[in-house]
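Just curious. Protein, please.
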Amino acid sequence: MKFKRVLLKLSGESMGGSKGAGFDSDAIRAYAEEIAKAVKDGTQIGIVVGGGNIFRGVTGTKTGLDRVKGDQMGMLATVINGMALAQFIKDKWVNAEVFTALPMEPVARYYSKEKAIEVLENGGVAIFTAGTGNPYFTTDSAAALRACEIEADALLKGTRVDGVYDSDPEKNPKAKKYDTLTFDKALADNLKVMDQTAFAMCKESDMPIIVFDIKTHGNLTKLLEGEKIGTIVTMK
């Protein structure tokens, strides 16, 4: 399966490389290289980036922070990540524009579907930050929302594991990996593909989800070129 337009979800931890915290310039540069190559080859790419390498709103509540303020701090963390990723992509001679769900000009552009699609159709990368702009919603939900809004062919969720398993492969060496799944089976078996809000949105909009290992260099390129990488979740 080859794609004309995709939404790539990058976790904040992926920006931190093997440590999962802070910035790993080598890791970010590797992502930027693959993203830029895909764009030059004709794939339109929107990206939602998390902020867990800098700050997590839910974690902040454990230290006494108000949940709303904690989530807002997490949104700001995603903007920082988006700005960093955009710079590395631009270093590969591909335009990258950072959009935010909250007004932050001149730091980044305030999101609108029309502006984002214009960037994509002109050969650039649209990076969506600040989540949905609302507390209590994860960046998974933001990824599902933006994928539907920009009318992507699929939502690609880059993770540290190579697909969806029937149990946690990091804890259970006998965990079974699925190559394909239906939304209904993933729900029935309580498989942790994405959070429930995001998953429901993708199911309702018939938006395929592909879960794959983003940390293995070359995987994104292979996936976009049509190779079977990770686990694909579809209606049938």
